[in-house]
Amino acid sequence: MRITDVEVLVTCPGRNFVTLRVRTDEGVHGLGDATLNGRELAVVSYLRDHVAPCLIGRDPFRIEDIWQYLYRGAYWRRGPVTMTAIGAVDMALWDIKGKALGVPVYELLGGASRAGVLVYGHASGESAGEAVDAVGRYLDLGYKAVRVQAGVPGLSGTYGVGRGELFYEPAGTGLPREDVWSAEKYLATVPSLFARVRDEYGDEVRLLHDAHHRLTPIQAARLGRDLEPYRLFWLEDVAPAEQQEAFRLIRQHTTTPLAVGEIFSTIHDATVLLREYLIDYLRMTVVHGGGITHLRNAAAYADVHQVRTGCHGATDLSPVAMAAALHLDLSIPNFGIQEYMRHTAETDEVFPHAYTFSGGYLHPGGSPGLGVDYRDDLAERHPYQRAYLPVSRLEDGTMGNW
Ligand code: EZ4
Ligand code: CO
User: pTM of whole model > 0.90?
Assistant: First the structure.
């Protein structure tokens, strides 16, 4: 089998997605997600101008060799643009191999290690009361784990607060929106939010929270300690993820489980965190972390350190990346939980998929390959629209971490 064509497809069914389609001389094709939120066209160019010409004529079954060729061969290693591009190629090749052999990708990865993939949904509200009500809606849908975020009084546009009942979408069209942030105001509200949620729904539901890289190490330590009575499943990105050594201080102060890694591009971003047992969940994803091939290696390295996976699964990861994550999640020994932010109906129509949700679990389904299609006819109705994540300023106007 030979690769004959490599297409980079851009569509905006409610938000932008970049999809790689690799075609072969035997008629089988594969899909990969190449979406990098707010920097989409950089990956488009990386793939179209620099990667696609190198793939034509290659044997798509040689997944590992092509991964090594793209990683070692670029000389310029790592980084989100490079690793997203490699991740897209890698996903498409696993999809092709599964389809050609007539098996779902998880069978190629060693087979199912569990019946389904535990997921968490996103409950949020402008006020704590609205957030508490939103948790109830997720429990009614069968979710066994829920992330809870609420607006902070006096701050506009708090991270994690969604529009509508089940959707959270931080990216907006046009230039970046500017939000206002105060760690002091935030820290004063989070513990009481979780006290209310536990009071209302009891001890069984797994609760998560994302601080989105906003706190200093000592503020992070304090938040972890203040949340201990509410037994969180995890506290995410409690300090900037690239400051691995900061987690030494945080870890000494709190037993609240910690999750980090959605912005990591390779396992080299997490070596201190893992070797020193500083986190409990690794959030790296198939799309931004170099594909199934690299994430499988990262998960194995995490497993050696008793760290489980909790792959990023926000709306900016397309259904193709979600499917790839689910095949990996189902197969690896140290799966922890999968983030599952629902896509809008418009998005799901462009990407019909075999994965299904039931009783708090997702399953990738039994279709050969990844089990996701791409409807060109629908995608073409939604051209790319410039969009960005917001930026964040402190109350005196200083730039902060979004
Ligand atoms: O800000 O996906 O845990 N989820 C998150 C997301 C990220 C976006 C960035 O593209 O932190 O909301
Ligand atoms: Co996050």
Answer: yes
Question: How far is Cα 274 from Cα 175, in angstroms, rounded to an integer?
Answer: 37
Tell me, using a 6 A CB cutoff, whether residue 316 lines ligand 1.
Answer: yes
Q: Hey, whose CA ends up nearest to atom 7 of ligand 1?
A: 314
Show the tokens assigned to 165. 């009942």
**Ion ligand 2, residue ranges at CB < 5 A:** 210, 262
Ligand 1 atom with the smallest distance to the CA of 160 is: 12
Å from CA of 101 to ligand 2 middle: 36
Domains belonging to the chain, first-starting first, are 3-104 (3.30.390.10), 117-368 (3.20.20.120)
Q: What is the pLDDT along the chain (402 residues), one digit of tens a residue?
A: 999 999 999 999 999 999 999 999 999 999 999 999 999 999 999 999 999 999 999 999 999 999 999 999 999 999 999 999 999 999 999 999 999 999 999 999 999 999 999 999 999 999 999 999 999 999 999 999 999 999 999 998 889 998 766 778 899 999 999 999 999 999 999 999 999 999 999 999 999 999 999 999 999 999 999 999 999 999 999 999 999 999 999 999 999 999 999 999 999 999 999 999 999 999 999 999 999 999 999 999 999 999 999 999 999 999 999 999 999 999 999 999 999 999 999 999 999 999 999 999 999 999 999 999 999 999 999 999 999 999 999 999 999 999
- Across 231-372, the runs of DSSP E, i.e. the strands, are 234-236, 258-260, 281-282, 308-311, 335-339, 356-358, 361-363
Tell which one of 210, 282, 388 to mutate to probe ligand 1, the residue whose CB is within 8 A of the most ligand atoms.
Answer: 210
Tell me, in angstroms, the distance from the centre of ligand 2 to residue 97's CA. 31
**Which residues touch 95 (CB under 8 Å, ≥6 apart)?**
29, 30, 31, 32, 105, 369, 370, 372
Residue nearest to atom 10 of ligand 1 (CA): 37
Identify which ligand lies nearest to the alpha carbon of 236.
2
